[in-house]
# Entry
Amino acid sequence: MLFVRSKRFYISCVLIATLMLTACTNKTENAAANNPQSEVQQIEQLKIAVPTDAGPLNIYTTSVDFMTELVFDKLFGPSPYVAEPQPWLAESAEQLDSLNWVVKVRSGVKWHDGTPFTAEDVKFTYEYYRDGPVNRYSHHVSDVPQISTITLLDESTVKFTCAYACPSLKTVTFADLPILAKHIWSKVENPRKYTDLAVGTGPYKLVEYVPDQYYKFEANENFFMGKPAVKTLYMPVIKDQTAMFNSLRSGEIDAAAKSVPPELLDTFKGAANIKVTTTPELTIAELRTNYEKFPLNIHEFRNALSLAIDRQTITDIVLLKHARPAFKGYPHPDSPWTNPNLSAPFDAKQSQSIMDSLKLIDRDGDGIRESEDGKKLDIRLAVSSAEPTFIRTAELLKEQFLKVGVNLKVEVMDAGTLAGISSERNFDLIIGNIGAHGVADPDQFIMSHRADYLWKKGLAYPEWDNLFEKWKAESTIEGRKLVSFDMQKLFNRQPTSLALFYPEQNWAYRSDRFDSWIQSPGFGIFHKYSLLNEAGRKIATGTK
# Structure
């Protein structure tokens, strides 16, 4: 089940009594949210294994969104990756003009410690993100878009004023930023060193965390969407892939929050009491380039490398066809914000022709091209030793690049070392994954060109700069979308991230323990909306 556009629904209330009038009252989603109509029977516990330790769920130090969103809520939900997010902590958001928005927040909501949630928390959160240390949410307030003033109109109403047009504030920003408790975070001087257990308004309270061992969550019985469907979530940290799936097979855990590798799919699909749900995840396996180093600093050369990649062969051999070749390039084609006409073709002859035109030629006949000053095209490719799929992909890329005269030197290293060379920009190429926030959020695509990832702010790129100014001047979502489509075309003509494949996620779980998982774009099946009561699930998915 995918999230779809919200619609009003109507409940006909026929009161049959001799002395009473017959009445019908239309109920909106907002009313249903405050008064959930139906409940699902709670089960006692689910054990969901997670592959990484995300710390005490401090949003400044973790990027595991599905876990933080068990605890925290946003103004709108489920995410910016759908066409029309639903009101969540907000009752409504009204655009007054191109620069101003007014948000009405829900009443009666409480933080996990019992403190009432108010518009003060919303104002504080957005100012804290804007003016404090940078985190993954900051740009949605400080740059793309840029919110200049946040005014508290009353205890339940906040006004946002932007520095330039912000037509997608509701559909993107309000649907992405988790709200923080002012009474807690106003006392935090260094958020990156904050280690207390997370406190939010969400359906689950984080009650215990043991580093590298487990998380324990308890249901928030006063959650504004009604009691969650599971009383206790126990999440052991199982970093070893083999150990995790053996635990699922033996029944030690109820679900694995890691995609089943292609070679194990048949085993799990045939196992008793185990189901596998496939979701087209909003993730791209990418070949990230250091666009400041020769010859990768040449737009045409990066395009030539992209043309040299036989994505179909990589998908067939490495992924056993359990992924889609990235023929549409970057960003992810399933996002409602992506140009449907993008293309990243395989054309080795065209790749060779471009390199010839750049005077990158095999001058000594050894099969490796050289620059005009005699420097061979030896390019390093770094890959994590913990990612066997990427290692096998790197081996195929080495063969494919050699066919067009580029010598790829594959360097396998531990994840820590890889993270280090990435942050220091001491690399040529890196294979990795980029998730939904990077490839399905339209504002993040813009920001990635201003934050060193896809490009660096201040580094000359007049074509892009012209489009960015045009994008800023647009005051409607549709106008912005058309300009961003042009940006995406430009990017795929001279990419700094070469899309390899769109991973297919296969989620395995024990259906005899819990079988009510639902899909959400960018999150698969493991997210808080799967764990809501029936009324909350309907509102979250926009269904009747």
